[in-house]
Design a protein that fits this description.
This protein has about 325 residues and is α/β, with parallel strands linked by helices. It has 14 helices and eight strands. The model has no long low-confidence stretch (mean pLDDT about 90).
Length: about 325
């Protein structure tokens, strides 16, 4: 197991012991006992994996969402889509490499795909700005959404970002305005829009391409107004309280589905998408096709009405009244 997380260490220790046993010099007298011990350890590894991954905390899922080997947008463009043709530039300032966008085929469906791309190593992370887009990234995304709307192509947005870039240059070029315009314009686009949270769904950086008819989320992804560390720094004045913040924020896929902030959870293999990217891509593709087919069967006016109603009801809660004391 490469890049194990803290809670995965019991599995790593068992796997190391298994590898040592398999390298053990075998003799005829020990064959039976050795094979039995190997089977017992393999069984223990499976039991431990099921136990750990079936009861993950919110913070552990955040760690999985940030796993360095987790599939990124370009990985899904290779496995779930075909004939991706990347388009560049916002026609105003520059091309933002943190925002990847272009035409692609989803089986026999022509779509416009837009997503935030992270890097695997230092060089690529610098190129992709760690997946945090500048204003020109959101303006490029909107330019291509309008192009898709013009030619009647469904839009798929893939979200995997800790947030929009908060640097001075981004502020000077009006990052907040760029995101706000995207929110407004995405409500008015007539073609179907499906957003998928692949890993991190952080703040306005995610929401800037996240207004959609359907919002899907991978099982170990999260979607939040702020990172757990940022929340901990504000509320507890201590970033080490991130685990407590993650629990309080209700940012896991299951929490979001219960709160009706997302429409479907896409299952992942045991241990996360990085353990079996092909299976994850197949589940992702199946869910995406299902929702696109439903949305394309609706008249544009109905889609716009339902999209508006979807966002109008978010954040409405009815709390149970406090029990009245008995007389």
């Amino acid at each position: 197991m490469k890049h194990p997380l803290d809670f995965e260490k019991p599995i790593v220790e068992l796997q190391r012991k298994l590898e040592e046993l398999k390298k053990h010099p075998q003799t005829h007298a020990l064959d039976i006992h050795l094979d039995e011990e190997i089977r017992q350890i393999e069984k223990k590894i499976e039991e431990t994996r099921r136990q750990i991954y079936s009861d993950l905390t919110a913070w552990q899922r955040v760690q999985l969402a940030r796993h360095p080997k987790r599939p990124f947008v370009l990985d899904y463009l290779k496995t779930a889509f075909a004939d991706f043709t990347e388009l560049h530039g916002d026609r105003k300032f520059a091309d933002d490499r943190a925002m990847v966008a272009g035409f692609a085929y989803l089986e026999n469906r022509k779509v416009m795909v837009i997503g935030t791309q992270k890097g695997r190593d230092t060089k690529e992370n610098i190129l992709r700005n760690f997946g945090s887009a500048h204003p020109e990234g959101y303006r490029k995304a909107l330019r291509l959404m309008r192009l898709a709307n013009k030619f009647g192509l469904p839009i798929v947005t893939l979200i995997d970002t800790a947030g929009a870039y908060p640097g001075i240059g981004a502020e000077e070029r009006h990052i907040a305005e760029a995101i706000a315009v995207n929110l407004r314009e995405m409500m008015l686009i007539e073609v179907p829009i499906v957003a998928v949270v692949l890993g991190e769904g952080g703040s306005g950086g995610a929401l800037g391409i996240g207004v959609a008819d359907r919002i899907l989320i991978l099982e170990n992804a999260y979607y939040s107004v702020i990172s757990p560390e940022g929340c901990a720094a504000i509320l507890w004045k201590d970033r080490t309280a991130a685990a407590k913040a993650a629990e309080a924020l209700k940012i896991t896929a299951r929490n979001l589905l219960e709160l009706k902030l997302v429409d479907e959870i896409i299952p992942e293999p045991i241990g996360g998408a990085q353990n079996d990217p092909k299976t994850t891509a197949a589940s992702f593709k199946s869910s995406l096709i299902k929702h696109l087919d439903i949305l394309q069967g609706l008249p544009a006016a109905d889609r716009l009405r339902l999209r508006y109603e979807k966002y109008r009801v978010l954040g409405h809660f009815i709390e149970d009244p406090k029990p009245t004391p008995e007389a």
